[in-house]
Design a protein that fits this description.
eight-stranded mixed sheet
Length: about 325
């Protein structure tokens, strides 16, 4: 029917096309505890749902198997068992009645709906520490939703502060380099971040382009690569980068989030220290993405290492520097 086709098209707005085009799409149950109607059978492991008519905003979503199990537990009122990182896409944005009560059906007196821009949502075993991530949904950066409940998860906004500019030359002005950074990260983070330039020689000091007011550190496009690749790091990723740039093994004790919303380029998906692609190989050029590091790394049973898949994938698998790339375009 036309209604079914419209719901399928709406559900597919939530995730990158390579995921949404082959996902199973179901509708919301017509009543609490009811069976969700199947709108379209899929051929990958992802599940998508159209807009929830019980909220005022447009909020389709696409969830991986870890999130599917979480959703089943949530809808049944049971406690989810999260044993691996999980990823959910809401690239059309979303709205929730509460950032604290998972089962609220409307905002509390005097409160508004929690409206979110395009974002991804993350699950990790053990949940999230409010010492590492805020619970303030107005912060403009990653924040914990439903903190302290069995259903807590991390909301990661993915709307860049500005259109991507670049590539950047080493001789470009400080102003151009700062403008370049704003294509990599959400506005609230970029406006307050410390911005550093790349060293003029390997092992050299990084010149400061602008002192910041928050805990994030950003760098503009790296001239050693052919594509535009500014990036911004949270404190966990900043420590990871410090280790990487000195050849030391990073100590990752909590989930770390890094933004490359202008895309990027790397010489190899296998060798962390390659400076050029291997003979017969091309540069690895991811679309706009978010990067994650985690204390226990990432398991190839849960994520591919194929950087051409369009799916979330492991970079530099089975090295001390492995991390997860999550495409968001």
């Amino acid at each position: 029917s036309a209604e079914q086709i419209a719901k399928i098209q709406n559900a597919m707005e939530a995730a990158p096309p390579v995921i949404a085009e082959n996902a199973t799409i179901i509708d919301w149950p017509s009543e609490p505890g009811g069976e969700p109607p199947l709108l379209r059978a899929g051929s990958n492991e992802w599940l998508c749902l159209p807009d929830n008519v019980g909220t005022p905003g447009n909020d389709p979503m696409c969830v991986d198997p870890v999130w599917t199990a979480w959703m089943n537990a949530y809808m049944a009122g049971t406690e989810p068992e999260t044993t691996a990182p999980g990823i959910s896409y809401m690239l059309a944005g979303g709205s929730d009645p509460s950032n604290f009560d998972p089962y609220a059906t409307g905002p509390a007196d005097g409160e508004d709906w929690v409206d979110s821009p395009a974002h991804i949502m993350l699950l990790v075993p053990g949940g999230f520490d409010p010492a590492e991530f805020t619970t303030d949904h107005n912060s403009g950066g990653p924040y914990i939703m439903w903190e302290g409940t069995p259903y807590e998860h991390l909301m990661v906004p993915v709307v860049a502060a500005a259109e991507a500019t670049g590539p950047i030359a080493t001789t470009d002005s400080v102003e151009m380099k700062i403008e370049n950074v704003m294509g990599a990260v959400p506005q609230a983070i970029g406006d307050g971040a410390t911005i550093m330039d790349w060293p003029s020689e390997p092992g050299g000091e990084q010149p400061m382009l602008r002192a910041g007011e928050n805990e994030w550190v950003c760098v503009p496009d790296w001239p050693a690569t052919p594509d535009n690749d500014p990036m911004c790091f949270d404190p966990t990723w900043t420590a990871w980068m410090g280790a990487f740039m000195t050849g030391a093994e990073p100590e990752v004790t909590t989930l770390g989030v890094s933004y490359m919303l202008a895309g990027g380029a790397a010489a190899s998906n296998v060798d962390p220290f390659a400076t050029q692609p291997a003979e017969g190989e091309d540069w690895v050029v991811p679309a706009p993405h978010v990067m994650l590091v985690a204390p226990d790394g990432f398991d190839t049973a849960n994520f591919t290492t194929d950087h051409t898949s369009g799916m979330p994938w492991i970079m530099w698998d089975d090295t001390p520097y492995e991390f997860l790339i999550i495409p968001i375009e």
